[in-house]
């Protein structure tokens, strides 16, 4: 009974109210961010974003309670670095494609929302949550429009590949010819690799250093390659860079 009375005497109702308000703010805003992520079936959904926001708010509030603004600032710096490890866990590499960057960035923003809430800045936390939601929803039509645009060689910085097929016994000479023709057109080659190989023919691919390129110049390179009796066919392709 005495310990309970001592705890009640030392209990700071005002400070507790600030803590409760900060955690509640982080919970509500984290729920809004996480609900959008869950709706789109992302790796880090509702519960993850809520826990990140509430955890960041708790650490910020603890620093504020113990050491004031200096303590909050010190702990927030650790939250910023610590959330990076959590974000790295949702980033996946699938071949040359990387997925999860947007989800990781959303987690990072959820932590920022939590630190605002825990630092007793609820209006700022709500404002940031609004911007995060806008970024994940309102910008989607713009992103889809950009992604649907064709890759145009004259304006797009991308990865260009010149293909040449030849007989197996001519592979070495055609490699040299690829280098020579691309050097004549002032396009540096990053690598030449074999894409496919059979008893009848071999397909070589010369990958250029990522840059902008002229469609007419690449057509001219392909035509020059096809003019050689060693080359069965030649063409070029373009891909977006990672």
What does this structure look like?
The chain has 242 residues and is an alpha+beta fold. The protein folds into two domains: 10-147, no CATH class; 158-240, Alpha-Beta Plaits, CATH 3.30.70.260. It has eight helices and six strands; from the N terminus they run αααββαααβαββαβ. The strands form two sheets. Strands 4-5-3-6 form a four-stranded antiparallel sheet, covered by helices on one side. Strand 4 (189-197) and strand 5 (202-208) form a beta hairpin. It is elongated and about 90 Å long. The mean pLDDT is 83.
Give a quick set of tags describing it:
two-stranded antiparallel sheet, Alpha-Beta Plaits, single chain, alpha+beta, 242 residues, four-stranded antiparallel β-sheet
Write a compact overview of the structure shown.
With 242 residues, the protein is α+β, with helices and mostly antiparallel strands.
Report the order of strands and helices.
HHHEEHHHEHEEHE
Q: Quick one: biggest sheet?
A: 4 strands, antiparallel
Contiguous uncertain segments of 5+ residues:
none
The DSSP helix count reads 8
Q: Roughly how much helix do the residues carry, as a percent range? A: 55-70%
Whole-angstrom Rg: 29 Å
- Secondary-structure content class: alpha+beta
Work out the count of structural domains. Answer: 2
Quantity of strands, as a count: 6
Oligomeric nature of the chains = single chain
Mind sketching the topology for me?
Elements: H1 2-10, H2 13-39, H3 46-88, E1 92-94, E2 97-99, H4 101-118, H5 122-137, H6 140-148, E3 158-166, H7 171-184, E4 189-197, E5 202-208, H8 215-226, E6 231-240
Antiparallel strand pairs: 1-2, 3-5, 3-6, 4-5
Helix pairs in contact: 2-3, 2-4, 2-5, 3-4, 4-5
């Amino acid at each position: 009974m005495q310990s309970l009375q001592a705890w009640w005497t030392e209990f700071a109702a005002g400070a507790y109210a600030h803590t409760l308000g900060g955690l509640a703010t982080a919970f509500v805003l984290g729920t809004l961010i996480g609900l959008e992520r869950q709706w789109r079936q992302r790796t880090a959904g509702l519960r993850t974003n809520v826990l990140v926001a509430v955890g960041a708010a708790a650490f910020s509030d603890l620093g504020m309670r113990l050491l004031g603004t200096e303590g909050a600032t010190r702990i927030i710096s650790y939250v910023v670095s610590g959330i990076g490890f959590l974000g790295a866990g949702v980033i996946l590499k699938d071949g040359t494609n990387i997925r999860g960057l947007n989800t990781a960035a959303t987690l990072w923003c959820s932590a920022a929302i939590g630190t605002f809430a825990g630092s007793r800045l609820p209006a700022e936390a709500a404002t940031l949550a609004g911007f995060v939601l806008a970024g994940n929803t309102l910008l989607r039509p713009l992103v889809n429009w950009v992604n649907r645009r064709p890759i145009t060689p004259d304006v797009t910085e991308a990865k260009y590949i010149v293909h040449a097929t030849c007989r197996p016994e001519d592979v070495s000479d055609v490699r040299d010819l690829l280098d020579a023709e691309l050097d004549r057109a002032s396009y540096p080659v990053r690598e030449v690799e074999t894409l496919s190989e059979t008893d009848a023919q071999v397909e070589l691919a010369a990958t250029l250093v990522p840059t902008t390129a002229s469609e007419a110049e690449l057509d001219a390179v392909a035509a020059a390659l096809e003019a050689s009796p060693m080359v069965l066919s030649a063409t070029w392709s373009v891909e977006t860079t990672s």
